[in-house]
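Hi Y.,

Following your request, here is the sequence exactly as I used it, all 644 residues.
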Amino acid sequence: MSTKKQKTPLIKTPKTPLALWLGAQGVRLDGVRIDSDSTTGALRLVSTRAIGEEEALIVVPKSAVLSVKTASNQAVEALLDEAALDKPGGFPDSAVQTLVVAFERSKGAASRWHDYLESMREVADLPILWSEDELALLRGTGLDVAARTWRAELAREHRTITRALREAGQHVGADGAAMARLPLAAYVHAATLMASRGFFVDDRHGDGLVPAVDVANHKCALAPEGDGDSEEEEEEEEKEEEEEEEEAAAAKEEGEEGGLGPRSLRAAGPSLRAAAAAVAGDASCLQMDCTFVGDEENESEEEDEEDEEDEEDEGDEDEGGGRGVEGGEAKEGGEGEEDVEEEEEEEEEEGEEEEEDEGEVRLVAMRKLPVGVEVLNTYGEYPSRKLLLDYGFVPTDNPLDTTALTPSLLAAACAAELGEEQYEARRAALQQVGGARLLEGGVADGFCFHRMGEPPDALLLLLSLLLAPAPPQAAAPPQKSHQAAGAAAAGAAACRAFAALPASKRHQRAAVAGADGLGLRILARALQAQVASYDAEPSPSAPASASAAVLPADSWAARMQVEAKATGAQRREVATRLVQGELRIWKAAQAWVTQAGVAQAGGKQHAPQKSHQVKSHHVKSHQQGAAAADGAPSQGGKRKRAKQ
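Below is the corresponding structure, written out as tokens. Let me know if you'd prefer a different format.
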């Protein structure tokens, strides 16, 4: 990266404070400019010329990123050390990053990132900011419970991390004392920024705010699949998927809620990808515009250099294996050389850290784009509920939308059809052979239904095991917590093997085809209960009670409403769009079950067609005073992030 390029950033007019700040920080924009939406006033990226595939549109020096490393001080280092201890009741490293953002905001013009932070004063309207009455609009989606749980967790983190700073006293300096005084509202505001704008930069910086790149709005698109992967590459991908399953299972067992770390852009399996393509009609609509990438080329070169150095070291050891063994003088000399080597290693590590700070992250085009269009990023292959929870918006139409069948409703349907005693016996037997996560919907796509309404493979696999002529044999003792990761990997492998079977075979094993049709009856009962849950009165739950005790709903809403600009009508409209989208999926699922039953009666075994007309489900609480889902305005003005 040349100094000349840093001094001449290609930022177009108008010369706003943000544009001037980006230029001073060495941020380069090429082929795009930051514009504001004429209707909402929100920032967006617009192409200024024809753009070619793989062009770098935005290049950001890592020194301009707002992270725990670039904004480090004595207090931040102490907090990171404390988080690394992973104490029970402690705080994660992500909490340190959130506090850093809150602290930089509180410094005003004294912050190096002041002009950048001023450009995003408005809080992303995440459900954690909604009142209890507004959260009730999300009943049935599960987001009301998730928002309350997250809200309580933020309050606990803030209380724990500020107490740690107060107890550290003078050891964390004046900055630590100022950070300890930050109010909860400031911490929550920073949390919304990190959730809706944060990127994983690298292992050293962790998550951070990346100026200019975070302006790009979201596009519902599919990450490209590998073209012509070799058998070795496919095996490597499969191994990585198994490792991810194991890590997810271990994190769930330990009660972890995330933290710093890279996130996979790919989330959709083959079934969801096919469904999204069918819904979109035109495959080009699902192509990504651009994506966020790190300093991959430099990292690869560094890894090659390290490998060469390791080989050289091994050669030196082979040649001089007897050094320092015979005679005292030779031994002392050997120790002296070891000291020199240690000093050289320390210098190399310091040099690597400096090089890492001098590195860059980029926003790169994934396809050709014409001049004058909005350039969109893809944060992930996410359903609408994920986009609302973490980013604060619901797309008008999301081909990748999914919604999950509640495990307790499926269990109730199984018990009703099988009988309590028989279901409990079969469930216990399945648990004892490592099927606990399968029962919870925690394997592969779980119980998530896509827009076409076809039951997911993990659900069909579960039904095939529960409804088998003989229940699973308990050949292993009940699972312990340290065995969960291995069980999850085994469950994922079993699900992949099941998914590889022909559709007719899967349906037959799950009893959704054939003469008996017990699986169909279970599905029909569970789906009916799921649809009814959107109208059901909420029942008290432990997370809801805990969050209410920590943060009274009214006081929270009063404090946070000052920050959030959204009105009650806007939130009602967003909630209605989400609920109607999920009900559309459940209607498709019910239609799938209906047609599967018709196919059974006619002696046929084939999957239902994609288009069905079913009776509309009327949800009073979600429709009064709100626009219909299809008529909702575009979310193009929202400012969000991409994750890779």
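The beta strands are 28-29, 32-36, 43-47, 56-61, 198-202, 206-209, 290-293, 360-365, 402-404, 448-450.

Thanks again,
Q.
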